[in-house]
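Record type: monomer structure entry
Structure origin: computed from sequence
Chain ID: A
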Amino acid sequence: MIDMSELKNERDGLSEFLRSKFQASVITKDKMLVITSEEALSTKDVKEYVKRFLHHRGLSEIYRVIEENDVIRITERKKVGKRKPEKKGIEPSSYDTLPYFFPKRP
């Protein structure tokens, strides 16, 4: 089973992609996708193909794929802001950083 509750517009595309790769019947129920096949499909194989689909559509930066107890979930990645570097030590005064000019001799 694949939980596609957070995947918005690509549900039909994902079901068609998985049908072509596994030669299995793919049934869409609300926000879930159920794959039934005569062959034994491992969840790792299905997860890899879901990740490939997201990569081909350019969505791998937005969504991630998680496997939990034979259920594959597609979730949005959390946006993490960049941290500002902390200042270490004391900033030198402008008097300390200016070059010393020697006076001109006549």
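Annotation 1: Residues 2-76 form one domain.
Annotation 2: The longest helix spans residues 43-56.
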